[in-house]
């Protein structure tokens, strides 16, 4: 029996996961969470074999939660299940320690198969991203290559229109750290202004379409 934890800020989505996964007799959802803070507490309480993690958790960061989980248990099997179909999101999640990344547009069986793969210690990627992600991971020259997960989060939230204070609250860092990250982003991406930084984000497909909170 594989014990699973679902962390997603949409209750209806969590219910859909539960119904899909618990059709299998050897999969059981032991806990759910709608926020990063609750997700971390549920992880420590239940120590699931696999954690399904959304990247955008309202005012929280899935990448930050991923780092917390791995500090608590470096062997944790975390599968990111996200609305974001841009390869860079998957690359950042894998760099941060996720074992897999599946887009929410994937067929249901893709998610089920990925759960078993990450539980076995294997990497799992949805077919719509696998080729591009592999190429980006091998490309040490790409502009994206030097971004840390924190810098990626700061850039993503800047592109959602959040100010320095709001980003600091979301990522649990000081406004000064956000400003330093903002400066580093422009330096690493070769952007001399925020307008150029936005253009770079467009090129990297980091500007959300539709609901910016969908993760």
Helix and strand element order: EHEHEEEHEHEHEHHHHH
For the biggest β-sheet, the strand order reads 2-1-3-6-7-8
User: Termini distance?
Assistant: 28 Å
Q: Helical element count?
A: 10
Shape: globular
Mean pLDDT: 85
DSSP strand (E) fraction? 5-15%
**Number of strand elements:** 8
Q: How would you characterize the overall build of this protein?
A:
The chain is of the alpha/beta class and 215 residues long. The chain contains 10 helices and 8 strands. The strands form 2 sheets. A 6-stranded parallel sheet has the order 2-1-3-6-7-8, sandwiched between helices. A two-stranded antiparallel ribbon has the order 4-5. Helix 1 (11-21) links the parallel strand 1 (2-7) and strand 2. It is globular, with a radius of gyration of 17 Å. Residues 209-215 have low confidence and may be disordered.
């Amino acid at each position: 029996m594989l014990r699973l934890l679902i962390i997603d800020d949409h209750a209806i989505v969590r219910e859909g996961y539960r119904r899909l996964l618990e059709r299998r007799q050897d999969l059981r959802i032991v806990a759910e969470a709608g926020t990063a803070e609750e997700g971390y507490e549920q992880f420590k309480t239940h120590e699931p074999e696999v954690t399904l993690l959304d990247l955008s958790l309202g005012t929280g960061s899935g990448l930050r939660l991923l780092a917390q989980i791995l500090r608590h248990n470096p062997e944790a099997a975390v599968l990111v299940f996200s609305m974001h179909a841009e390869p860079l999101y998957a690359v950042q999640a894998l760099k941060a320690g996720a074992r897999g990344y599946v887009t929410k547009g994937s067929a249901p069986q893709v998610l089920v198969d990925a759960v078993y793969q990450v539980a076995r210690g294997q990497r799992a990627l949805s077919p719509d991203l696998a080729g591009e992600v592999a190429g980006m991971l091998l490309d040490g020259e790409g502009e994206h290559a030097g971004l840390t997960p924190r810098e990626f989060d700061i850039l993503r939230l800047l592109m959602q229109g959040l100010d320095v204070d709001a980003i600091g609250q979301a990522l649990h860092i000081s406004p000064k750290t956000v400003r330093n990250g903002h400066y580093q982003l422009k330096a690493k991406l070769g952007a001399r202004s925020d307008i150029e930084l936005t253009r770079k984000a467009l090129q990297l497909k980091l500007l959300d379409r539709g609901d910016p909170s969908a993760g």
